[in-house]
Amino acid sequence: MSVAFVPERLRGTAEVNQDTLQRLLEENDQLIRCIVEYQNKGRATDCVQYQHILHRNLIYLATIADATPPRTQKPVD
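The line above is the sequence of SS18-like protein 2; the predicted structure tokens follow.
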């Protein structure tokens, strides 16, 4: 199950940290590899479930990125 999947009762309570983001990126890598493998075998319909999970993960990452305040950098002297 995707690390981005959180039951309704727990939504908003999950802590987002570097480990969670790294696991999600690694999961996305595996999903993409699986999708490509199925497509190369001519089994495009079998990869639809993985595409949905990948889409959900990408939306989750985009939501986190949008909600994260931009970092302010110190001016270089």
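Note on the example: Residues 17-67 form one domain. The mean pLDDT is 83.
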